[in-house]
Each structure stands twice: as C-alpha cells, then as structure tokens.
Design goal:
By secondary structure, the protein is of the alpha/beta class. It has 3 domains: 4-161, P-loop containing nucleotide triphosphate hydrolases (Rossmann fold); 175-351, Rossmann fold, CATH 3.40.50.300; 357-437, GMP Synthetase, Chain A, domain 3 (2-Layer Sandwich), CATH 3.30.300.20. The protein is 40% helix and 20% strand. Helix 12 packs across helix 13. Bound molecules: guanosine-5'-triphosphate (GTP) and magnesium ion (MG). Magnesium ion (MG) binds at residues 15-16.
Length: 468
C-alpha cells in the first residue's frame, strides 16, 4: 500500500514547487504523450527508497472565507487522507502568524507532521530556520525546492516518520500466480456493477480481505483456472452491500489500487463520452506503467448514432494508447464480459512475458538490417544486442553505440517490431538504449583527431616555410 503524504502551508511558500521537484521523474514518463492529462495535484514520488502518493494543496490563509474556505476544506480533506503531512514554511519570509495557525490546525488533526523550511538558497539555514522552533514541531528540515536541494534528505526523514504500513508481500509463492486486477473509473460508471457481475457469475468465493489501512479491500475469485484478486476502488464493502454502497471517488484510493495491480481496467461511461477525469486517471495508469484494458460500459441501450460518436471520440482522444484493447461492455446485462476477461488475460500475459536474450537480439538485428537509423553528423548508430530489463511493464535494454543520436521515430519502429514479434497487447513497452562505446576507442579517436590537427598545423608550417 502506497503511503500518502500531503503538502500544506500558507500561500507562496513553495508547495507546488516542492511537489514538482518530488514527482518529476514520474512526469517525465508521460511527458511525450500528448493528450494525457497530468494531474498537478496528485502525483507519485519515488525520490529515495519509498514511493508515496503526494498531494499538493492550495495555500492556507488565516481567515478562511469564500474561496479560501473551499481551499481550506480541501486541505482538511487531504490531511485526513494522509499518513504524513509536510508542513512547508519559507526561510525567506520567516515565521508568520499564518504559519502558527496552521501549526495549531495540524495539532488538532493529530497527524504526524514534518516541518520543511523551504527557500534556504542564499540564506544561512541555521539562522533563518531557528525561529520556526517556536511551532513546537521540531527543527525545520532545510530544502530549496526550486533547486531540488535537500530532496533526498527530506524523503529519508519522511520515510522514517511514516507509520509502518504492513507490507503486503506481493511476491510470495502463492501470490505469484494471482492476477491482481484493479477496476478504476469515475463515480457511477458502473464499477460496482461489474465487480458484482464478475463475482456473481462464479460460485466462488469469497472472502473480503480487510486491507492494512482503513480502506483497502481485496476480494478473491477464481475463473477458468486463474486466481484473481479484485482490488476495490469502488467503495465495495461486503457483497450484500455492494449495490447500495455509496461510491465516493477518491483519487488516492485509485492511485493505491493502480500501484498494487498487475492489470487495470479503466471504466468509461459510453453514454457520457470521455471526460477529463478519465484522461487524468489514464495518465496515472500510464505513469505507473500498468497493463491496461479500457472498458466502455453502458453500451446497451445506446443509439447507433451515439455509439459511432463515442467510438470516434475514443479513437481521437485515446490515440496515444493504441496498444490498449477497448471493450464494449454492459456490466448490467453481462454482455462483453467474455471479451473483457480475454483482454485482461492477454494484457497480463504480455505484461509478464519472458523475453530471452537470444530471441531479443535476433529480432533486434533483423530489424536493424531491414532499417537503419538515420545518420547524424555523418555517422550512424550501431545496435549490437538486447536483453530484458524487467516486467510490469516489460523493458527491453538495447546495447549499441551512438545510441543518443537515435531519433524517437526509430525507437517507435523498434517498439512496433518487438510488439508484433512477441504479440504484446495491453501493456506499454519500455525500450532503453545503452551506449557501450568502448572508452579506449573513444580516446583513440580523440587522439587521432588531435594528431590530425597537429598534422594540419605542421603542413601549414611547412608550406609557410617553403614559401619563404
Ligand atoms: N528562492 C527560492 N524560491 C522558491 C523556492 N521554492 C519556490 N520558490 C518560489 O516561490 C514562489 C511560490 O512557489 P509555489 O510553489 O507556487 O508556492 P505555493 O506554496 O505552491 O503557492 P500557493 O499554491 O499559491 O499557495 C515561486 O516564485 C517559486 O519560484 C526555493 O527553494 N527557493
Ligand atoms: Mg501551489
């Protein structure tokens, strides 16, 4: 279970800058995918050893009225969801009465809080941060978010302060063959109905496994020889109460479920088209590299015209995930369920596929022969061999030289070759290049260049000499 960390503080102390600094690597993963909505308020940090859900909040002011009141309510909500609060103060402006008010509020919430002294660049942190001791929250941890200074230390300290969340051992033997399936989507798209349908079809099951924190509940079922763990995001509690469970959308719960899942079913409401909330969820799924099946629910009872509309809208807005199957579904009537299971299994197989080095290398070299990357500065890149670099999502590491010069279009070409060869569907594929340029060779090249220059100079010199 991913721990949850909320960032709070008065306006302009650098909360969003800190959030950005801590989530930057994850953002980079989807940076080149136009159309993915990136959620600037929720993100996943993996600075240091512990990944966590990070929540950025709006600035809290002393007198909370009007819009400030709404912000304040959101901040309270974030604090309630969090296991740890990062309370950001500014070393530039020093301690203010607003800081004191927020300190008080945190004491009321009774959440562990870590005091973060931001903007220490160009100050003497010991002097500038001393006065914050008055908040009674211990010494402020010095950082400069806009310079990414102190980020490691901050996350180390945060990790120490996080309550021990029981590790769900995901790699135990009996767990290895279990398909962890999360069903996520906006409220009311029909997640509970689908879960019900999946459970109801089987004699099964089942027992709810109360999670380690307040909210997480998994349900187990077996179908067609495959053991599933359905990861709840729908507010499902007990089977009998599934239907009347009020669906409360919590992005934190969705993020935790996505993190835990092998395969994610993103459920859309076909009668409503694709909303920003849908693409936001999609962005999070991609950021975490999860296998994905898109389910278009409520397909029954739609007019032919509307069906065409929503299909073409989907093609347009979801074109950056061509690899994800789109299944038309009626969770209510059960149509499309077989196709959904098939797509889920296929995505699972693809995401956990075993790609032996000889096969990868053979495919790579064949593709390279058929099609070489364009020359850059008169020289070509060479690709030598490939090996697997992990699963969920599958990663392929390609070794060669001058790989820095390989354009994105060529990378996409290789991606497609591998996807076709291994029949991958429903999972992203990560390709990484490593330049194995022989350092000696490099030195030699530099030497020869230097020698060339020397020779040139000598030539000029001798020419001049002969002219004299
Ligand atoms: N010198 C310096 N400036 C910083 C640092 N961190 C943030 N800033 C600047 O402080 C200003 C406010 O930063 P934000 O991250 O927007 O602050 P915030 O707390 O999110 O503000 P609200 O969301 O409006 O409450 C910006 O101009 C940042 O560039 C830092 O470490 N050093
Ligand atoms: Mg902000």
């Amino acid at each position: 279970m991913l721990p949850v960390v909320a960032i709070v503080g008065r306006p302009n102390v650098g909360k969003s800058t800190l959030f950005n600094a801590l989530t930057r690597t994850r953002d980079a993963l989807v940076a080149d995918m136009p159309g993915v909505t990136r959620d600037r308020q929720y993100g996943i940090s993996d600075v240091g050893d512990t990944a966590c859900v990070l929540i950025d909040t709006g600035g809290l002011v002393g007198q909370a009225e009007g819009i400030d009141y709404l912000t304040a309510r959101q901040v309270h909500h974030a604090i309630d969801e969090a296991h740890l609060v990062l309370f950001v103060v500014s070393a530039r402006e020093g301690l203010t009465s607003e800081d004191e008010a927020i300190g008080q509020l945190l004491r009321q919430h009774n959440r562990p809080a870590l005091l973060v002294g931001n903007k220490i660049d160009g100050t003497n942190p010991d002097v500038a941060l001393a006065e914050f001791a008055a908040l009674g929250l211990g010494p402020a941890l010095p950082v400069a978010a806009s310079h990414r200074q102190g980020m490691m230390g901050l996350m180390e300290k945060a990790t120490e302060m996080l309550p021990a969340l029981e590790e769900e051992d995901t790699d135990s033997a009996e767990d290895a063959d279990r398909l962890r399936l999360a069903i996520v989507g906006r409220p009311n798209v029909g997640k509970s109905t689908l879960v019900n349908r999946m459970l109801g079809e089987e004699r099964v099951m089942a027992f709810d496994l109360p999670g380690t924190t307040r909210d997480s509940i998994s349900t187990f079922m077996e179908k067609g020889g495959i053991k599933y763990e359905l990861i709840d995001t729908a507010g499902v509690r007990r089977r009998s109460r599934v239907t009347d469970a009020v669906e409360k959308f919590s992005i934190v719960k969705a993020l935790q479920a996505i993190d835990r899942a092998h395969v994610v079913v993103l459920m859309l409401d076909a009668t409503e088209g694709i909303t920003d909330q849908d693409t936001t969820l999609l962005g999070h799924i991609l950021q975490q590299g999860r296998a994905l099946v898109i389910a278009l629910n409520k397909w029954d009872g739609m007019e032919e015209y509307d069906r065409k509309q929503v299909l073409s809208e989907m093609d347009r807005r979801l074109q950056f995930v061509p690899w994800a199957r789109k299944i038309r579904l009626s969770a209510l009537h059960g149509s499309g369920l077989k196709e959904l299971y098939r797509a889920v299994k296929e995505a699972w197989r693809s995401a956990t596929i075993d790609m032996p080095t000889p096969e990868l290398t053979r495919v790579l070299l064949k593709a390279f022969e058929a099609h070489q990357p364009p020359m850059s500065q008169g020289r070509t890149s060479r690709l030598r061999f490939a090996h697997a670099g992990g699963n969920l999502p599958p990663r392929i590491i390609i070794h060669g030289n001058r790989t820095d010069a390989i354009p994105a279009s060529y990378k996409r070409y290789l991606e497609n070759v591998f996807i076709r060869h291994f029949k991958l569907h429903g999972t992203p594929l990560q390709i990484e290049f490593r330049s194995g340029d022989n350092p000696y060779k490099d030195k030699k090249n530099k030497l020869t260049q230097r020698q060339l220059a020397k020779r040139k100079r000598l030539k000029k010199f001798t020419k001049r000499k002969s002219r004299k």
